[in-house]
Design a protein that fits this description.
Blueprint lengths: L2 H19 L5 H12 L11 H25 L3 E10 L3 E10 L6 E6 L1
Antiparallel strand pairs: 1-2, 2-3
């Protein structure tokens, strides 16, 4: 893959990651692609839709899941904390936190329904 193609693909992953990380609707991905293109990075029409965003997010979540599983497998001790809450009777949010004494960082996942 050429450097320019790699850079464009990297930006698309970053856009999808930003949407997922901030809990924004998938439709914001298209808007972010428009902003990216306005800043000078050409984006192929094929990747400027919600389906592409979902595909990118599934690859990102798969990689994060693999890292978390590997952290748990390699740790002698770990703790798992899961908490849920409901806001305005319609929105449920589940927070998960995995900690390990073997690693200085903590893996955190946030998911809204």
């Amino acid at each position: 893959m050429r450097s320019s193609e790699r850079q464009k693909l990297n930006q698309l992953f970053r856009n999808a990651h930003a949407v997922g990380k901030q809990g924004r609707p998938i439709s914001d991905y298209t808007w972010l692609c428009n902003v990216t293109e306005a800043n000078g990075t050409e984006i192929v029409q094929t990747y400027r839709n919600s389906k592409a965003a979902v595909d990118f997010l599934s690859y990102i979540s798969g990689a994060e899941k693999d890292k978390t599983v590997e952290m748990i497998r390699s740790a002698q001790h770990y703790s798992l904390l899961i908490d849920g809450s409901t806001a305005l009777l319609t929105s449920q949010e589940i927070s998960k936190k995995v900690s390990s004494s073997a690693l200085p960082t903590t893996a955190r996942c946030r998911r809204g329904f």
